[in-house]
Write a structure and sequence with these properties.
about 110 residues, mainly beta, six-stranded antiparallel β-sheet, two-stranded antiparallel ribbon, 8 strands, about 45% strand, elongated
């Protein structure tokens, strides 16, 4: 069974996209730098933020976190702007805080597997 990220409200802007640096760098005393590829794959990490998730969306996100065994399982996530699907994992525990009655702010990061 393939897990899919829950259908939540569209994240707030900015939608953060971080490219992983696949290079290893070694500096030398004379000012030279030697580089080589650590690996050939270049993964992306996405930072998603919601400023006003409704209670139901917050509950879906929490339930999904639990179903991925606290972020250890991979799942499919659809990019909200271009509609492409990516196999990802949670980078860390989502940060969720109550902002208003019935509203939650949430932040999380997803990284390609």
């Amino acid at each position: 069974m393939t897990l899919r990220f829950p259908d939540l409200a569209v994240p707030s802007y900015p939608l953060e996209e971080i490219w992983e640096d696949p290079a290893i760098r070694s500096d030398f005393e004379a000012g030279y730098e030697q580089t080589r590829a650590r690996y050939t794959r270049q993964r992306k990490t996405w930072g998603l933020t919601w400023e006003a998730l409704r209670d139901a969306d917050k509950e879906r996100l929490e339930s999904f976190w639990r179903s991925t065994l606290g972020g250890s399982a991979s799942f499919l996530w659809t990019h909200p702007l271009d509609g492409t699907s990516h196999a990802v994992r949670f980078v860390s525990v989502p940060r969720i805080r109550k902002t208003l009655p019935g509203r939650w702010a949430a932040e999380l990061q997803l990284r390609e597997v």
